[in-house]
């Protein structure tokens, strides 16, 4: 609403959107060429495919004469199936490719991976996200004074505790929702911190829903998966996505890992319930999207993705340097392309409005992420490079002669 009002009020202004974390760079040709060939093959008898398995497709290859294992070349039946044989080799099922490329030696098998139409949908199916819990009535009453729901425990995290909650003061819950690298703070939990989280879940009989959507942006030795932690397979489900990994925000493709070792207190495997949910509430991810996802995880495709990731992280570095030059404290920007910028003593909506009105730059007020975000704004680096340059110039021009103290005084 604020954006639309601003555009209406300033029709000639060029708005730079550093708010919503939507990718802007093209999907690499190594991926789109495969998707294009797959789409063309759908117009043929040999290449057409309908419903796939709800858990994720297996790829039938006429060239190999069966469920393709990257075997022997037997002639041209359709360009797309020949392409899969030649390029994909032994890795022809997306679940197997994820297990091999993303989870490597972490003991995750392909039948523990469920392909989906995006992480957001999977989180909602798990009923662990705040909004879906509210919708189905699990969150109980809303407290107007605190802005919290009675049945949701809010694990406070901020600069004072290195953005990792104090588990010693956290009560037991059935579900623990945890995102690392974190949106909006940009903080990636350390191995020691995740070990504490896994131990906490074991002691309390809780299930961790671990959101690792930004894992491929990690540049230090922080764990990229909860399953790097010993014992995590007994207490955790991991949700991830191709949206930020491959620029699939409009294609829609993700996955969820539900280990066979994760059981209820009765000993019943959680994976059985999740499989039932997937088969009841879902008809399988797009065949075309899965073909693209498989191409992303080929050696050539994965290399191309890293180039785009580096591009966004360079954007984040440039923006961070800009805000730091004003004497502001900036968090994030190292393991995820988000900046969490601190304006001490100010309200986040005031900061948002000031920057929008004076520089025509759209950010996100930190208050939208909870009470601890009140003095912050989140700035996304998912933007074209020229927009990053322009945003840096506008911010510098506006704040160039303003010290942090005077800046705060200018804010309403």
Automatic annotation (TrEMBL):
Keywords: Aminotransferase, Pyridoxal phosphate, Transferase
Domain Aminotransferase class I/classII large: 169-383
SUPFAM superfamilies assigned to the protein according to its UniProt record, in alphabetical order: PLP-dependent transferases (SSF53383)
Pfam (any one): Aminotran_1_2
Molecular function via GO: pyridoxal phosphate binding; transaminase activity
Entry similarity comment: Belongs to the class-I pyridoxal-phosphate-dependent aminotransferase family. LL-diaminopimelate aminotransferase subfamily.
Protein name as it appears in the record: Aminotransferase class I/classII large domain-containing protein
